[in-house]
């Protein structure tokens, strides 16, 4: 098991714990996250949550492509109107969890990590953290990821991050300046800063907090749901075949360092 949950002071800390692979997620991890969020819905002792990555080098780098390949490719529907995405249900809101969730980011957060970040109430990160979306570099459409980030960042920033792919990374400082993250913590301090906020939220009457979470999300759900309805045909029509994606991935792994802005 590479995902751990600790409960203390009314707060559940969900830790992605596979630092050797930058906390990338395999199929079992995806199922585990779904189960964790669903379990928290019925745990009355938990009134807030923090999601973070172990090791300090990465929050999460999305799908572990090597592990998923070994576990067997996810079968895809025979139509461009449906896509089987193994990470589509790893976020708390996708599992109908309405306690506040704070993301604590140290190091890299990219690609599939955005399924988690886009469903947190707010983000705490360090100046050394970096955010990027490598999909286009590998011949893949950034649909769900870009849609989620477009609701957290100014349009131009979200579009640039999605389009520039692996060539460019957004620094923690720039993410703070553009509103993606709400607090810059010192190096190594993102988790404690997030826990401090979560403990405060856990001390409030839970009905009021959860009702407020639901109200904030109601304000954005119409646009979100409309956009996500378009995601599957965009992915099906725009993605290169998996074998060509793998070729691009192998070619670019040895490329030069990305630009950080």
From TrEMBL:
InterPro entries: ClpP/crotonase-like_dom_sf (IPR029045), Enoyl-CoA_hydra/iso (IPR001753). Belongs to the enoyl-CoA hydratase/isomerase family. This is Enoyl-CoA hydratase/isomerase family protein.
């Amino acid at each position: 098991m590479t995902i751990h949950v600790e409960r203390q002071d009314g707060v559940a800390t969900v830790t992605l714990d596979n630092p050797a692979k930058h906390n990338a997620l395999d199929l079992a991890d995806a199922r585990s996250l779904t189960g964790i969020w669903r379990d928290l819905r019925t745990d009355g002792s938990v009134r807030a949550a923090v999601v973070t990555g172990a090791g300090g080098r990465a929050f999460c780098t999305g799908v572990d492509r090597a592990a998923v390949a070994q576990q067997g490719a996810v079968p895809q529907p025979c139509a461009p109107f449906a896509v089987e995405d193994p990470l589509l249900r790893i976020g708390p809101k996708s599992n109908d969890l309405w306690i506040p969730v704070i993301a604590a980011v140290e190091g890299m957060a990219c690609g599939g990590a955005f399924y988690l970040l886009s469903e947190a109430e707010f983000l705490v990160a360090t100046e050394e953290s970096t955010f990027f979306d490598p999909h286009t570099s590998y011949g893949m459409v950034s649909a769900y990821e870009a849609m989620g980030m477009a609701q957290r960042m100014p349009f131009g920033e979200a579009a640039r991050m999605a389009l520039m792919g692996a060539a460019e990374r957004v620094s923690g400082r720039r993410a703070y300046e553009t509103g993606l993250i709400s607090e810059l913590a010192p190096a190594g301090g993102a988790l404690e800063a997030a826990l401090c906020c979560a403990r405060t939220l856990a001390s409030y009457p839970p009905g009021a907090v959860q009702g407020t979470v639901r109200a904030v999300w109601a304000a954005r759900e119409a646009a979100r749901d409309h956009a996500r309805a378009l995601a599957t045909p965009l992915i099906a029509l725009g993605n290169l075949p998996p074998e060509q994606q793998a070729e691009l991935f192998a070619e670019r792994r040895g490329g030069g360092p990305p630009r950080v802005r």
